[in-house]
Amino acid sequence: MILEVTDLRLAFGGVRAVDGLTFSVDEGEIVSIIGPNGAGKTSAFNCVSGFYQPTGGAVRLAGEYVTGLRPSAVAARGLARTFQNLRLFGELSVLDNVRAGTHLWLRQSAFDAVLHTPRYRRSERESTDEAHTWLDFVGLRGDRAGLVRHLPYGEQRRVEIARALARRPKLLLLDEPAAGLNHGEKAELLTLIRRIRELGMAIALIEHDMGLVMEVSERVVVLNFGKEIADGPPEEVRQAPAVIEAYLGQAADDDEVHAARAGFEEEGAHHA
Ligand SMILES: Nc1ncnc2c1ncn2[C@@H]1O[C@H](COP(=O)(O)OP(=O)(O)O)[C@@H](O)[C@H]1O
Ligand SMILES: [Mg+2]
Question: Ligand 1 pocket, 40 CB below 6 A?
């Protein structure tokens, strides 16, 4: 198991944002976490990634307990994430935003940095090369020297994914990556998520776009009021009465599933 979350709890005053959540993500698996707004999805991610201290429960990453560790410590053990509301460095270039991800594994001492030793210059070059590789990977072909805040929204989302990938994580957490994307961009995201899995990374995905969730997930965990109300393969979860009642009844949209599939097949045809 890459991720094992056991009886996770988080309370804000009287609000139980996460209320005894247990789920896991296996190697090479894509697990989606869905549920109505306010169900506790982002709060659960924040606990897993160290941004919030859970009030109870345990989080294990690749077999190691990471419960309550700081975000940087959890990241160093193989977790990278994106945010529901983008958190890029707006005043840095596209390239530098992704280079920031590489500093997790790049070995640089302050001594080398201050003196600009050959070793430092070599590692800076390595960081730049890696950043370009991930920008290629997410399909960002435009100017990489310009400020990231000048990019269209959909491209900023891809920069954030590239930065997370540049950390070379074992597990990637994506919080609503399709939010604000148009139809074509969603189809591209679907392809991208599958290509990330092919690299051997496991993915936990919070997403409202049911077409995307149904297409990419091995398993779907459904939250409502901080509690898990279903966990299983997408076809099964989709038919669970508790889920339909809480959520899917209003959100499931077959047209979107077909559109996402059509977009994906079109993409595949281009590559063939
Ligand atoms: N920083 C916070 N302070 C107080 N309450 C919060 C905070 N973050 C989330 N909550 C509350 O926790 C619950 C779950 O929110 P959230 O995890 O953002 O849900 P989701 O991502 O599923 O929409 C909501 O009731 C929300 O208002
Ligand atoms: Mg959220």
Answer: yes
Ligand 2 center to 48 CA (angstroms):
14
The per-residue DSSP string of 170-182 comes to SEEEEESTTTT--
Helix (H) or strand (E) holding 110: helix 110-115
Q: How far apart are CA 267 and CA 67, in angstroms?
A: 40
Atom of ligand 1 nearest to the CA of 41: 22
- The per-residue pLDDT for range 51-85, each reduced to its tens digit, is 999 999 999 999 999 999 999 999 999 999 999 98
Please report, for residues 209, 248, 249, the alpha-carbon distance to residue 239 in angstroms, rounded to integers and kept in the order given. Answer: 17, 9, 10
Q: What are phi and psi of 6, to 5 degrees?
A: -125, 120
pTM of the model: 0.87
Instruction: Please give the single-letter amino acid code of residue 10.
Output: L
Query: What span, in angstroms and rounded, lies between the C-alpha atoms of 262 and 96?
Result: 35
Per residue in 90-128, pLDDT tens?
999 999 999 999 988 887 777 877 888 888 889 899 999
* β-bridge mates for residue 240, sequence order: none
What is the position in ligand 1's atom list of the atom closest to the CA of 84? 21
Q: Which domains does the chain have, with CATH numbers?
A: 3-78+169-271 (3.40.50.300), 93-168 (no CATH)
Cα–Cα distance measured from residue 30 to residue 230, given in angstroms and rounded to the nearest whole number = 16
173 C-beta neighbours (distance < 10 Å), count: 24
